[in-house]
C-alpha cells in the first residue's frame, strides 16, 4: 500500500479543506456548507451531502480535454461523483445535519490510480472539519456524523491480489475493485469488475479482506488528521 | 423471483431484437451491427461492443422528463449504459469479432425495478442473435462469444435477502446489489450499496449466492430464447 | 391502405397507453396527466395538451444516433411533436379540461413510413383513455374532447395517388402530404410538399379526398379501441 | 395585401443580398456560396441549397431571448428554416448547380406577421443573384434555377379570407395557411392549420386561390428586383 | 476616420432603435426596457443595463457559422458584449433608473472593422432614446444618464497611428486598441493589445490622444442624432 | 505588493508545472506539449500557444457552480483564457516552435484577487520549462521564446494607486487595470476599466508606471524559478 498523507487547511475559504495523497495521486477536497437544500428536500428539516469530482486536464500522463470546455461531464466523472456522495451519506444522519447542504468538491491535481478512493477518504476529513465548525458555531447541536468512511481499490494482477493500485498496476489488473468501508466492519459499497479475466466468490472475498487492511490504515490517517 | 420472458424478433430491422420482461419490467433491446469501430480501435483488427440505455418518459409511475428534450443524459443513465457495455464485453473475444461494432440499445418500455439487470440479460440474447447472423453470412468465422452473461438484483429488506427486487421492494431495501454473472460461476461485476443500513461480509456473500440462483434461471431462459 | 391495429393498455403506469400499428410502423403512445400547466397558463383555469416524439435508434433500417446522447432533438423531431400537439389541441376544450396538462409521449418502436400520422391517430386514443379516467374519478365534469382526430399520409407515386405510404413508397413519392382530419369532415391541418415534382390544385384535392377515406378507417379503429 | 418592397445589394459581402419587406415585416436575406457540400453529397457532383432563419431579439413587440444565448434554436425556428430550404430546392436543378452549396440566411429585423413567407420570397431573389454571379464568373454553365418560387400566408378571420396576415390578423385568425407556389401554377408546399375553428375542403381551396393572387404580385416584384 | 452615420428609429417595436455606420460597418442597436431586474438586484430599488452582441453569419467576407445553430456564443462574442454593457453602465445612475433593466441588442449587419466600437457608440443613442421615452411617460423622474459615452478603435500600422481601423487595416496593425471615452475627458475603458509588435508608453499615449479626436466626432454625431 | 512565490515541478506529468502565489492567490499552471496544431495552422510549419483557465468551485469566499456541471464556460472565463493565450504568444516565435502546440492550463486553487495576472506570470514559467525540455530533447533547435512576459493588476482606491490588488481592494477600487508587460519596457496588453469613477490620461499613466514596478519583481521571481 502506498503512503497516505492528509494535509488539512490546504485552502482558506472552504469550511473544510484537505489535500490527500495516496502515493502520487493527489486530490484537493473542499467541503462547502450551504444554508439551503435541493428542491426535493425543502421544508423537510433534513440536510443533504453531495459531491462533485473533476480531474485537472493535465493530472494525467497525457492531457485530457477540459470538461467545462467540452460542455459536459463524462460518464466516468458522473459515476464517480455519485459514488462519493453516496459513500459520505452512508455515515451522516440527515436530521441532525438540519436543513443545509454540504458539497464536497474533489479536484484531482495529480492522478496515479485510485483517484475515487482518495476522494472518498479525503472527503470524509473535509466533511468532519466542516461539521466541527458548524458545531463550534452552535449551528448543529448533535454530531450528525455516525462514523468514519474510507475507500480503497484493490485488484488481481497476474493472479496476485494487490492493494491500492497505481496507474500501471490498474492498467494490468485482471480484476479491479473498489470498496467503501465503514469503521467497525460494515460495507457501504462494493464494486468489483472483471477486466481481462473474471473472478469468483473466493476472489471477491480475498479482495474484500485486503480492502479491510487498507481501510484500517486510512482510518488511522483520518483520525490523526482531525486530531482524534 | 419474478417471471422471466424473452421474446425474440420483436422488431424487424435490427440484427438482433428482444423484448425481455422481469415481471412488469419490460425492456426492448436491439443489437445493431456497424462495420466501423470507435477511433481508438481503428486499424487494430479488433471489434467493440457498447450499449446505450434509456427509459421512456412514462415507463415509470410518474412521468420523468425526456433526456433528449433536456439535452443531456443523467448520471444514472450513463452509469447504467457503461455497466451494460462492460458486462457484455466480458464475454466477447474482440479479435474474433473483427473490426466492427455492435451497439446494444436498451429502451425501457415499462419499469418496475431491475431495469439494468433485465437490460444486460436481454442484451446478451440480442448480441447472440446478431452474431449468429454475422456467422451465417460468413462475415465471422469463429464464434466470438465466450459464454453467457446474465444479471440480477438482490437486496436485504427488513433483514431478509430478496431476489430480483421490484420497485416497491427496491425502495424499501436496506442494501441493494446487482450481480453480473457468467455461466459457470465467474463474476463479471458485483455492485452492492448500503441504503438505510450497511452490510457486512456475510451479507455480501448471501446476496451473491442468491444472485447465482437467479442467474441460473436467466441462463435457462436465454438458452431457450436462442434455441440452444 | 395498410392494416391498422390499436392495442390499448400496452403499459400499466400511464393514464392512457396505446400501441398503434400502421402496417410495420409501430408507435407506443402514453398519455400522462399532470396537475399543473405551463407557466403562460398558470391561474387561467385552462388546461393544456402537448406532445413529445422520438424514434428509438434502431426503429429504422440503419441505426440513427440517439438524440439524448447527441444532446439535442433534431429539427424533424421538433416539427413532428409540434404537429402532434397542435392536432390534439384542435379537439380539446381547454376550459373543460381544467388547469391540468396531458402530455402525449409518442415513441416509435419500429418505423416503416407514416410515424407522425400513426402518432397522432394513436395519441387521440391515449388522450381519450386518460380523459375517461379523469371523468370516472370525478376530476372533470364535462367531456373536454369535442371529436375524433386522425391523420394519414398520402402521396403521388409515378402519377398515381397512394394512401398511407410505407418507407419505400415515401422515398419514391413525387409529392408527400399529411392530413389531420376531424371526424365529420373538417380539416385540422394539411401539409403537402412537392418532392421530385410539384403538384397543382387538382392534385391537392385528390390527395385530400384520399385522406378522407383513410381517416374514416382510422376513426373506426379508434372507436373500436375505446369501446364506443 | 401589404406593400412588397425588395431592395437588392443591402449588404456588400454576400454573393446575393436582399432586404425584403411585406408591410412592416422586414427580413435581411443573404446568399452565401460555399465550394463544398454536406457529407451525404460529397463526390456525387450535385449541389445543395439550405437555409437558416432567425429573429433578432427585438424584432417583435416584446423582446424574446436570443437563441445563441439560450444555446439552442426553438422548434419554430427549425421548422421555418427547414421549410425555406425545401421551398428553394423545389426550383433548383442540383446537378446543374455543381458540387457547391448555397446557404440562405434569413434574419428578421422587424416582425409583423409573415416572416417565413417574406423569407422564402426574398431568398429566391438572393439565390438568383448569387447564381447570376456564379454564371457570370463562368463557374456554372447552365442555369440551375428552373423557375420562381414565392410564398404568402393567408387565413380566415371571422369568416372572411384574408391575404398576407399581419401580426394582429394572424393572432385573430381561425385558420392560418402558408402556400409556397411556383410561377406557372404548381404548388411546392401547402400548410394549413386550424386555430380556433377548423376548416373544410372549400375553405382550403379559397385560401389556395387567394394565395395565387398574392404570389402573382410577389413574382412581379421579384422580376423587377432581379431586372428581368 | 471613416464617415459616421446614425439613423434613429430604424425598427419600430424597440423603445430605442438605431442603425449606426462607421464606414461600411453597420450595426443595428435596439434598447428594450424590461420592468424587472436580474436576481442579484431584486428588491434593491436599482436598475441594470446590459448588452448582447452578435454578427449575422454573412456580415463578414466569408460566412461564419451561426452561434444559435452551434449552440454557444464564442469567447469573442461574450468578451464584446461584456465590454458594451460595462461601457454603458459607466454613464448610468442605477438608482435613478429605478428597478428596471434596459437590454441593448447590438446585431452587426455588415462588418468592416470596429464593430464593437460602433456598437458602444450606437448603444448610447438607443439607450438615450429609451430613457427619454421613460421620462416622457413619467416613469423616471430624474435623468439617470450622467453623460455621453463613445468608443473608437485605433492602431499602429507600419509605425503610423491610424484611427478607426477598417478590416484591412486591422488585419495589418501591429497594435490594436479600443478606447471607451466619456465626454469631458475621462476614460471608461482602455484596451490595447500588441499584435505583431509590442508598443511602449509613448505609443499608448499617442493612441489615446488619437482616440480623443475620434470620439469627439462621435459625440457630435450622437448629439445630432438625439436632437441635443 | 504581495509576496510572490513560484514553486516549479508541483505536478509530475506535465512538461512544465508551476504553483504560483500572489499573496493568498494560488494558481496551478501546467504546460502540455502536443505534437499537433489547430486546423487553421496545419501544414504551415508553425506552432501555437493557447491557454485554458478555470477556478475550482471553492477557490472563492462562497462556492461558485462548477462550469463543467453547468455545461458552459462563463464569459469571464473565456475572456481571461483568451488574454492569457494572447499574452504568451507575444513572446513566442511560432516558426521556431515548429508544428506543435503548447497548452497552458491555469487552474485557480485559491483566489484573492489577481488570478489572471498570476496565471499569465506563472504560465510564462511553465512554458519556459516545457520549451527547455523540448530543447534538451533536441526537438527544437533555436529558442522560440523571445523574452519574459509578466502581468500585474493595479487600481485606484479612494484616490490612491494600489499595486497587485487583493479581493477586498479590488472590490473597492474606482478603477481596475491589468497590464501585461514584456521585460525591457514594451507593453503586450493594457486593460483599464473604470468601476465607480472614471479616470483620465494621467491616471492611466500612473497605473502603467506602477505596473512596471510590479512586473520587475515578477521578472526577478521568474528568473529565479527557472534558474537564470
TrEMBL record, chains A, B, C, D, E, F:
GO biological process: rRNA 3'-end processing; rRNA catabolic process; tRNA processing
Catalytic activity line of the entry: tRNA(n+1) + phosphate = tRNA(n) + a ribonucleoside 5'-diphosphate
Enzyme class per UniProt: transferase
E.C. number(s) listed in UniProt: 2.7.7.56
GO molecular-function term, one example from the UniProt record: 3'-5'-RNA exonuclease activity
Primary role: Phosphorolytic 3'-5' exoribonuclease that plays an important role in tRNA 3'-end maturation. Removes nucleotide residues following the 3'-CCA terminus of tRNAs; can also add nucleotides to the ends of RNA molecules by using nucleoside diphosphates as substrates, but this may not be physiologically important. Probably plays a role in initiation of 16S rRNA degradation (leading to ribosome degradation) during starvation.
Protein family membership: Belongs to the RNase PH family.
HAMAP family tied to this protein: RNase_PH
NCBIfam families: RNasePH
Protein name: Ribonuclease PH
Species annotation: Novosphingobium lindaniclasticum LE124
Native organism taxonomy: Bacteria, Pseudomonadati, Pseudomonadota, Alphaproteobacteria, Sphingomonadales
